[in-house]
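ESCALATION

Customer reports they have been waiting on this structure for their group meeting. Please prioritize. Original submission:
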Amino acid sequence: DGAWRRLEERARERKWQLPQHGDLSILRDAKFEDVAVASGSEVQLTAPAMEPLYRVDYGWLRGGGAPGTAKSAPPGATITMEAARVHGEVLVSDHLPLVVDLQLGEAASGE
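Update from on-call: job pushed to the front of the queue and completed.
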């Protein structure tokens, strides 16, 4: 698609290694969930910071079975993926900062 072509062109111009399709598949295949998608948040572009062309910043948690919950919670607890958002007004890097909101709660009885 167009965004991927722009990413490849930018990498070639800077003599960077080209990005590889499928890199995120490794995480998805291992049952990790993208917090932005799982929480229903708007997926936002993060780089470069001044004029974002592509998304390179993610929050990942291993899924816990129910959509938007994480398997990696402490014993007797649950983690719910609440939101993920990019702060476009903060420019301290070549990427925009990504904030992920998680809710730690108690597991339902019988889990």
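Sent to customer with the following note: Residues 2-13 form the longest helix (12 residues).
Escalation resolved.
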